[in-house]
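User: My advisor asked me to double-check a structure prediction for Polysaccharide biosynthesis/export family protein before group meeting. I don't want to rely on an old file, so could you generate it fresh from this sequence?
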Amino acid sequence: MKTIVGYLFIVLFFTSCKTQNLLVQEGNVKDTSTFAYDSDYQYKIRKDDKISISVWGEDDLSVGSTYGIYNSNEVYGKWLLVDVNGNIEIPKIGTTAVAGKTIPQLKDYLKIQLKKWLVNPIVDVKVLNKEVTLLGEVRNPNTIQVDKDHVSLLEMISKTGGFDFYANLKSIKIVRQQDDEVSITNLDLTKSKDILNTNILLHPGDIVIVPSKKNKDFDKRVASIVPLTSAISTAAIIMKLF
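Assistant: Sure, here is a fresh prediction for Polysaccharide biosynthesis/export family protein from the sequence you gave:
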């Protein structure tokens, strides 16, 4: 019996060594100034964004208005989609280039245009699809909608229910795309003294990848040998047999 269990242990050990964690790839990760804190950062409208425009007291000029109850539900398509050319079609104003503009810039532009018909237009603009995606070893991997331009990494992790048991806190990846350029940074959250640098501020559109520890696959294989015991106790039993 010891011989059989010993053989299984050896097979599991070497096969687990070949198992690749797809969320941990050496050689392709680069730290860049892209992730440095920028107090002046503001989200810039992108292609395929969903834009709502609210003009106080003017439902005919609003799309997805936050000021009225009859034109406010995104579920029914109350938004404008930024097309491949970076434009949207605004009531009365017409085709408007919005890609690359910040929300305040677009609001100021709309106020100037609307003064042709309104004395003092009150305008609000929202991007409805600002979100951060969290993948891997968190309790509830998800894409989470955000209203703010700045949200911290740990704040977003908390919204998923926290890290799973096998989360590799030494190798958290953040993926950020700006136009056609993709940047990746690697964070070690086990360094408590470096919390100001590791708990970075995320931007809408960021992807957080929490890889698993290398022993996760091994523990699962060992657990399958003795289903009624935990992976840890199974490993302990096998070690005692030698």
